[in-house]
Write a structure and sequence with these properties.
With 184 residues, the protein is mostly helical. The protein has seven helices and no strands.
C-alpha cells in the first residue's frame, strides 16, 4: 500500500483511539500458571535513529515490571512490551504522573499520558500501571500489523502524539529492559 495512504489510515485509526472509541481493560487470555520460563530473545528490528537512555530508579523499574506483567496477562509477546515501555519512556520517563498543573498537557496522566477526556478511563484508572498498560495494549492490538511495523509507527497510531517520531529513540533501552525483566 502506498506509504502516504497507509500513514493517513494509521492516523485516522489513532484519532479514533484518542476520541475514546474503546474503554476499559481487555480480558486476559493467558494462564500464567501454564507458562514455563524460557530464555527471552526479543526480536526487534534495528532501532531507528539516535537512541536515548536514562538511568532508572526503583519506582521506574517497578513500572517496567508492571508493564511487562500486564503484557503477559494480556497474552501478548515481548514486542508488545517493548512498544509499551518505549511509549512510556517517551510520555513520562516511566513515572506514573499525576496532574501537573500548568505544566500538564491538557488532562494527561499516568505512565502513558492518557487523557480521561479522550476516553482512556478515569484519573484513578489511568494512574494505575496495570490498567493504563492494558488500555494501551488494547489499542495496540487493534492496529493491523503492529508486530511488523516500526515501533514509532505502532506507538503513534495508539497515542496520536504531536511528536510522532519521538518514540523511536527509546527502542533500544525498552528492548534491553524487556530482555532483562521478562523472566524475573
Amino acid at each position: 500500500m502506498n506509504t502516504i495512504i497507509r500513514k493517513s489510515m494509521l492516523s485516522v485509526a489513532g484519532l479514533a483511539f484518542a476520541g475514546g472509541v474503546f474503554a476499559g481493560p481487555i480480558a486476559a487470555h493467558a494462564n500464567p500458571a501454564d507458562a514455563k520460563p524460557a530464555a527471552v530473545a526479543v526480536q526487534s528490528p534495528k532501532p531507528q535513529g539516535d537512541q536515548s537512555h536514562i538511568s532508572l530508579n526503583d519506582e521506574q523499574t517497578a513500572n517496567v515490571k508492571a508493564i511487562i506483567a500486564a503484557t503477559k496477562k494480556a497474552g501478548l509477546p515481548e514486542r508488545a512490551a517493548v512498544i509499551s515501555i518505549a511509549t512510556s519512556l517517551q510520555e513520562s520517563k516511566l513515572e506514573n504522573l499525576g496532574h501537573l498543573g500548568d505544566m500538564n498537557d491538557h488532562d494527561s496522566l499516568g505512565l502513558f499520558q492518557q487523557r480521561p477526556s479522550s476516553g482512556w478511563g478515569t484519573p484513578e484508572q489511568i494512574t494505575d500501571p496495570e490498567y493504563s498498560t492494558t488500555a494501551f495494549l488494547k489499542g495496540l492490538k487493534q492496529v493491523d500489523g503492529w508486530q511488523d511495523m516500526p515501533l514509532t509507527d505502532a506507538a503513534q497510531t495508539v497515542q496520536v502524539s504531536a511528536y510522532p517520531d519521538a518514540y523511536a529513540q527509546w527502542e533500544q533501552q525498552a528492548t534491553d529492559l524487556v530482555t532483562q525483566h521478562w523472566n524475573s
